[in-house]
Write a structure and sequence with these properties.
12 helices, Arc Repressor Mutant, subunit A, Four Helix Bundle (Hemerythrin (Met), subunit A)
Amino acid sequence: MVRVLVAIVLAMTDRLLAAAQTEQVLFRHGRCDDARVASSSLHRHVADALGRQVAGGDLAAGSVVNLADLEREHGVSRTVAREAMRLLESLGMVEARRRVGLIVAPPEHWNVLSPQVIEWRLSGPGRDAQLRTLLDLRVAVEPMAARGAAEHATDAERQRLVMLAERLLEMGRAGLGQTEEYLETDVEFHQTMLRSSGNEMLAALAQVVKSVMVARTRLGLSPSDPVQAVLEHHVTTARAIRERMPEAAEVYARLLVSRVRAEFVLPG
């Protein structure tokens, strides 16, 4: 019996060593990395296609998602199809049901603050409704973030906010409101304000705010000549934060995001 056990252990050891040597060779030649990158790219491609279908309503809540169908439709392996479903499941867009399999979950189950879900919803027929809810979110949270930043921001953050606001004013007056530089500066301004608020919940929304600002520009909804009042509200908000005036910062930030929302003529 002992000899048999020893033989089994030795055989298993030989297999493990052979596998390790093979993996080393693959890594040495980049094949293992390439395979992993390719697999990751494939499952994200499948997840992106299906996520857009779900967000756009082409796959309604309760629809059954069949892995075999995904394999045929996208020409991928079962492993890739399963990984794509895991990604959507982590976003709450699909869920497993006993004796049924994977089904599309209702919107109230989705992780609506995920930048990926936001992107999918903004690319579909529900774009205007999604923009409206995201703008409402900004009106609700950014004034409090400005108030917090006036109380908790570092000196460097206060100076950075003023610099960004003044640069926005300069570019806006020059008719550069649709440029990449304007977008990047605007995103940094609002993200800095959220992250310097001293509130980790507000700071966690920085990526969400970026998503709506980027989408707004990509969809051609940002004016090349921003409203003068919006530009000035950036500056007054930043200066109130710099001067440690929380009440004023909150008021100016509310004027800012409320005016941004008012720029959009959205149904409903």
